Amino acid sequence: MAKIEQVAVVGGTHGNEFSGIYLLKKWQKRPELLARNGLSVDTVFANTKAHEENKRYIDCDLNRQFIARDLADETLTNYEQSRAKVINAQLGPKGDAKSDFIIDLHNTTSNMGPTLILLQSDLFNRQLGAYVLAKMPEAVIVFEDQVSLDEHYFLASIANQGVIVEIGPQPQSVIRQDVLDHMENMTQHILDFVVLFNEQKVEDLPESYTAYRYIESLKLPEDEAGERIGMVHKNVQDQDFTPIVKGDPIFTLFDGGEICYEGDYEAYPHFINEAAYYDNNLAMSLAKKITVSSQ
Ligand SMILES: [Zn+2]
């Protein structure tokens, strides 16, 4: 892999996720905090208009607009679709990007703690996960490598390497110090790792570590008319990354009934009851626990 030189740290991709936005303001005043040997680090405020309106987005979710064919589709012209094309021109273009590495900063209302989402499982990403975990034992590493970078719709997929820093629990449009501190620390560790990787000085990593791989998303229960008829079960609420097995209750219906998990694998729910996912009636994501080699 070629050396990483151009790095973009992106905040405010969702306008009501405040940690990244306020960290960007801090770093823009004190760029030395992001400065690293051999790296040129830029900061990008992705959706200022949504932030001004204190919303996740104006027309549609910006962090779902970066599939290569959508970026090339001139008929997609609403606010976020247009904004995606501007950001792609600035940091990309996807497939031949000026940026070598993107760190996209997000908050979740779910009780996920400091989570690092990796989009690929090559040596760089596997070792990055190991390094962050060594520096932040409370961190969780999630691989969302179920599709190729080309097919990923996340902003971080513009560059050949990109990661999502996803920290919770934090309500929308709120700043919590514990969450902000985790985000700042994780970002610093990621940048430190990039320098070590460039200089081929990554050492003392464990041979392997425990992480999670995204499998599927579950919807909140609906009736035939599409009306919501239940909620996340209280046993599952806030229990991100606590496993569930077939027969465990996961939803409580408003009429008092329960719906149990039917899957045939031990699932690790996360993004449980994420506020932003109500738009799509999503209840949670499910992952499998995996062992990842650092070699
Ligand atoms: Zn977000």
Quickly count the helices: 6
- What letter string, H or E per element, gives the SSE order? EHEHHHEEHEEHEEEEEE
How large a portion of the residues is in β-strands, by DSSP E?
15-25%
Number of strands: 12
Strand order of the largest sheet: 2-1-3-6-4-5-7-12-11
Low-confidence stretches: none
Radius of gyration: 19 Å
Q: Fraction of residues in helices?
A: 10-25%
Q: Per the principal axes of the C-alpha atoms, what is the gross shape? A: globular
Bound molecules: zinc ion
Question: Termini distance?
Answer: 15 Å
Major sheet summary line? 9 strands, mixed
Q: What's the pLDDT, averaged over the residues?
A: 97
Structural class: alpha/beta
Family: Belongs to the AspA/AstE family. Aspartoacylase subfamily.
Domain Succinylglutamate desuccinylase/Aspartoacylase catalytic: 4-193
Domain AstE/AspA barrel-sandwich hybrid: 208-289
Protein name: Aspartoacylase
How would you sum up this structure, described in words?
Pfam families: AstE_AspA_cat, AstE_AspA_hybrid. The protein has helices at residues 18-29, 48-52, 68-71, 79-91, 123-135, 177-198; strands at 6-11, 40-45, 101-107, 114-118, 140-143, 161-167, 208-219, 230-232, 249-253, 258-260, 268-270, 282-293. With 295 residues, the protein is an alpha/beta fold. The strands form two sheets. It has a nine-stranded mixed sheet with strand order 2-1-3-6-4-5-7-12-11, with helices on one face. Strands 8-9-10 form a three-stranded antiparallel sheet, with no helix packed on it. The model has no long low-confidence stretch (mean pLDDT 97). The structure holds zinc ion. Zinc ion (ZN) binds next to loops.
